[in-house]
Specification:
Blueprint: H1 6-19, H2 32-39, H3 43-55, E1 59-62, E2 66-69, E3 74-76, E4 93-104, H4 116-119, E5 123-132, E6 135-145, H5 162-170, E7 174-185, H6 188-194, E8 201-211, E9 217-224, E10 229-231
Parallel strand pairs: 3-10
Antiparallel strand pairs: 1-2, 4-5, 5-6, 6-9, 7-8, 8-9
Length: 235
């Protein structure tokens, strides 16, 4: 049986104390000297244990203070076909409509190829900003094929699921999709919306969702600030 090193034992003890709430967010862990004395280990052992806690997001180091307990990042189910609203399952979020659904022409530099039939019509575009705990986390720009969509521009999508709205009022269901995922640097517009510095690394998803209606697609550009929320899903 492989022997567990001293730093791993110390890491596990400190991690368990944080998870149990013995240390709350913002609390300082004991100093390196105090940990050495309390657990009868050397300073390199303490530093290795603290380094692992930092790498896993349990604490952060601050010059002149020490090791500060922080809230773990939470996961967003952003990769599923259930839509962006479903990504916030279990979270209290607010969805702000930046641009109300409106009928526009397809952009000339669109991020997915548009088939001939779709090119003959126009699309419905809307923009939304998703906020969790006062943090602007996701900015989303959506394009919907404008085909047999009466009064859609009058629908209220504030804090509502777009996919559920399509299903309830138009019997349109998402059946699958494809997406491209890349890391980008925030430009001035996106940085202002997500309240981050220009040039900060963000996650961008370009999505094309298939539906049960022939030649009817839902496209979206999704920008996500993953500093406090990582992306997760089952596969």
């Amino acid at each position: 049986m492989e022997k567990i090193s001293l730093y791993q034992i110390l890491y596990q003890k400190l991690r368990e104390s944080i998870i149990k709430g013995e240390y709350n967010e913002g609390d300082l862990l004991p100093s390196e000297n105090e940990l050495c004395s309390q657990y009868q280990v050397t300073r390199p052992t303490v530093r290795q244990a603290l380094s692992q806690l930092v790498n896993e997001g349990y604490v952060r180091k601050q010059q002149g203070k020490g090791s500060i307990v922080q809230q773990l990042n939470k996961g967003l189910k952003l990769l599923s076909i259930e839509g962006t609203t479903a990504a916030f399952e279990g979270e209290k979020f607010y969805s702000k409509i930046l641009v109300q659904p409106s009928i526009v022409d397809w952009p000339q530099d669109f991020f997915y190829a548009i088939n001939t039939q779709a090119e003959s019509t126009n699309c419905i575009m809307l923009e939304r900003l998703r906020t969790i705990e006062s943090r602007n986390v996701i900015y989303e720009k959506t394009y919907i094929t404008n085909k047999q969509m009466p009064r859609f521009t009058q629908k209220n999508l504030e804090d509502k699921s777009l996919f559920e709205t399509l299903k309830k009022y138009y019997q349109i269901q998402i059946t699958g999709g494809e997406q491209k995922i890349r890391a980008i640097n925030a430009d001035k517009h996106v940085a202002k919306l997500l309240q981050v510095l220009i040039g900060k690394s963000l996650l961008m998803l370009q999505r094309k969702m298939y539906t049960n209606r022939k030649d009817f697609f839902v496209y979206s550009l999704v920008y996500c600030d993953t500093e406090h929320y990582y992306i997760q899903d089952l596969f």
